[in-house]
Protein 1
Amino acid sequence: MIIKKILVDEIIDFLGKDIIKVMGLHEGIYIDNLSDVDRVNETTLDWVNPTKANKQEIVKASKARVMLVDETVEYVDGKILIVVKNPKMALAQVGNHFFVNHPKPSIHPTAIIDPDATIGKDVYVGAYTVIGKATIGDNCFIDSNVKIYDDVQMGKGCYIKSGAILGGAGFGYERDKDGNRFRFPQIGSLIMGDDVEVGANTCIDRGALSDTVIGDHTKINNLCHIAHNNKIGRNVVIAGCVNVSGGNIIDDNVWIAPNSSLRGYVHIGENAFVGMGAVVVKDIPAGETWIGNPAHKLEKK
Amino acid sequence: MIIKKILVDEIIDFLGKDIIKVMGLHEGIYIDNLSDVDRVNETTLDWVNPTKANKQEIVKASKARVMLVDETVEYVDGKILIVVKNPKMALAQVGNHFFVNHPKPSIHPTAIIDPDATIGKDVYVGAYTVIGKATIGDNCFIDSNVKIYDDVQMGKGCYIKSGAILGGAGFGYERDKDGNRFRFPQIGSLIMGDDVEVGANTCIDRGALSDTVIGDHTKINNLCHIAHNNKIGRNVVIAGCVNVSGGNIIDDNVWIAPNSSLRGYVHIGENAFVGMGAVVVKDIPAGETWIGNPAHKLEKK
Amino acid sequence: MIIKKILVDEIIDFLGKDIIKVMGLHEGIYIDNLSDVDRVNETTLDWVNPTKANKQEIVKASKARVMLVDETVEYVDGKILIVVKNPKMALAQVGNHFFVNHPKPSIHPTAIIDPDATIGKDVYVGAYTVIGKATIGDNCFIDSNVKIYDDVQMGKGCYIKSGAILGGAGFGYERDKDGNRFRFPQIGSLIMGDDVEVGANTCIDRGALSDTVIGDHTKINNLCHIAHNNKIGRNVVIAGCVNVSGGNIIDDNVWIAPNSSLRGYVHIGENAFVGMGAVVVKDIPAGETWIGNPAHKLEKK
């Protein structure tokens, strides 16, 4: 975390038209940290979740002078209340802008990039990362020790964490005359949209004869295995340690909870939720929540 | 994928005595791609699965001019049908030979190999791979960012994907007088047969006092953990995200589906199938299929 | 394994006051290996588990000349019996001291360490490891291809295996106005105690607004995902492929078996045991064993 004093005026300038109003005198007042509830102090930028019942009490009880709140909160003496529609989103924006150390775009001298790769503008590539004849969009952040194979197409603004392996050969075999397994050719590509995130040590294989596709804004956590030929939509969330076998269709806005497994060639409908540890062997209709081993529909009570 | 035109004559030469017959005039005719069913075009090398009921209709419906088929398929006007016993295997062979870019055997200058290691002929070692005093057989392909520890013995023709870690110290402790865990020595080896494949970011630990053993032609997918002292047979398939705890015996031709777990010291009999997400806490007799948490026998109906 | 002859006198000197007595003439007698039961030979240092019923028979049947035993074992002609309170612990100590090849403390020339990092005394850092502005305690062993981010604080004597990724940004988002996920700032730290072990390719994320904490002597196996904001106690064991989502409290001496999953914000009480493949969605009281999907208490019979 970057440690520095940020004036309330700087926050107001930064949030701009997202601010509905500011209550309280803030000239010369600063914050210098974001904290979870246990460690809030006078100079924390605190916030109140709009879904809470006792928002007014939370504001009064907070040790923080400056808080992000929604329109339903009334002024409390001595506080500076920055009123926005979505306080958590405003906190996230302030945090990312003022407290996160974003490495400047640059290619580390130890990164090995194929001369036939196409690297967009303002891309960061970390130490010991190896990139083949791939296409990397503008503003991508690719951390250290990443491997990206030939033919991978990555959109703009993607965020690839250390140890991720993108576009490797999938796991497919045909038995030869002696009964031994012979590798089926893995000659498709991996095509990733914009603003995709890939977690640390996660592996996404290229397609066999078709492509593996990951839609815009999809976020994949650490240590996931995404096999060949998956077609994954937009704004999908795949949590840690998930196994997605080959050839599934995962529609937009699906949420796949940690350590679950998708058998190949299932279809997960839009907005469906796959529970933690679920073992999915059937299609899941849109909007449904499935849990268990084997996974079954969770009936809402 | 390599993009090039391949004459039917070249395919006939390559498949050689695997070809039963060729039907249709093929002088000057070429193919230039392999594709899944959605993207087949006139110059795709297409194929028909012998298990399908409507093979004749599939041949007629395909946009492709050239197809690999079995002996039961009759000639269809305008096509070139290459008749073989196993069309999918022939497709795999053609694909691997003509369309896959196989890096030439070479040791990347950034690979760090112990001077006392024994490296066979025609081995590929990728960038930033670190190899200790290990023995690597002929024709092995070891991708980038791999770690191979001292004492590992790897047979011929193995295929090790990026990020794999082979022969690391296992996870075993004895409590000391203060109740804290003290590392039990991990001084066995990891002994791998020929034609073994290890997936990306998969970890296979060395034995503690005995060895970890992986048989010929066994294929392990991405993100698997194979703990110390496992004895794994030939032609075993271990899919993605599988946890194999220490000291199991896994006989030949076992299939272990994704994200399943084997408790230590169980025996999985030949040709057994462990279902996706199965939590195996007992021996599995040969030929049986076990699924669930805890795993139980699936009775065939 | 180091191959060398070790005189019984050397072992006696090394174990020192842990030895209760030595029975049998041992002048000039040596051992040269540790082995599992199948491969014990005359020069193995063998041992007898104090919990066995037939200890006397085990001593007689062993091919080994020299054995570590507890006080209840009587002398057997021709043997050299080294009597200690905990024979397995003595074996572990001898094995680690005489047979394990411990690399000398050193920083590999290819390691990239931020000039503002604080590295303790007698630290080993392997090839291609990248360390940010972190603090690393004395006597830590950090293997090759490891990534340690800024702000990580690591105690003394930690053991970090290859491919581990420590202190990366966690997985947290807030939806923006367009419904797309926007990264919530991940500006906490990762604070690790002394003698912590982190397995190969395991990922431990930094906190979001608070810290991720790992207590002294805690051991984590390969391919685990430890998300942001977890507070993990002392002497906790986390086996392979475990998913620990964000914000849990795991008390001292908890054992988490392989491939289990902890939903965020649960509390696992001291000495609890989480079974293999368990899907934990509730708090677990101290001392209880929970198994299954979803996890439930295992009633002791």
Note: Chain C touches chain A through 51 residues (CB under 8 Å).
Protein 2
Amino acid sequence: MEKIWLEPIGLVRTKAIGREVSDRGRVSEIILREDLAEALDRIESFSHLLIIFWMHGIPNEERTRKKVHPRGRMDMPLVGVFATRTPYRRNPIGLTLVELLEVRGNILTVRGLDAFDGTPILDIKPFDRWDTAEPVRLPEWRIRLEKEANDKRQ
Amino acid sequence: MEKIWLEPIGLVRTKAIGREVSDRGRVSEIILREDLAEALDRIESFSHLLIIFWMHGIPNEERTRKKVHPRGRMDMPLVGVFATRTPYRRNPIGLTLVELLEVRGNILTVRGLDAFDGTPILDIKPFDRWDTAEPVRLPEWRIRLEKEANDKRQ
């Protein structure tokens, strides 16, 4: 199958480093290419956006993994990469739902983007009602990770 | 900014043609590359998946549009492409939430994938609770399109 080329439409700006990036309350900016600012017109009429980005920190040799332990934890089962959100995947595309806080020219201020400073943005889509499913079934390991995170917060 | 190269991980198989593709009740198959079948391990423990695909039918010259009328309808406002789900976008990446019905080897059977036969698949992600926001704010034009679709169904 033929390869596909993409062009970054902008970059992430954040002061978060290391694990701080995963904090869903964190505010960061998406700096769109100036020639594309017009393509954001009226985006502020949506409260939430889906951000598709390129996890550029993943070396090519890490794209060949087929199975991983979620979060690299050996107490979690070994599962296929497509059954996890690991960045170590064939095409290291990131996908995150964010809250849109502000639009100024070519700059979007968003809450909840778990991407590092300098991450290339591939696409921005408005979040719509059809992007939701309820109820969802999750595996035991995922519920265990969720419970741990909740316990830590309390 | 440098261009990014991606590799299709599989293809869509569907009998749907034309507008039938948008029918969210329709069942289609994702044929993963055989060498990647292992990367689907345990994916059936999730009820829903996010499918990221490449809208290969969009010619390169259509990737430069900055504004569109949603659904090509002149009675809808002219809005920035990133404020719509139009395929005429800088990087024609498709993103759809589907219900996972069956997994057999390298073949996933899913409901609700609005992609044409032969569409290259870029990534498959399990749908998780953090992929949901409630309530969401939508623009007037989007609510109008939704109401029309509901009226038609009744």
Note: Helices of chain B lie at 140-153.
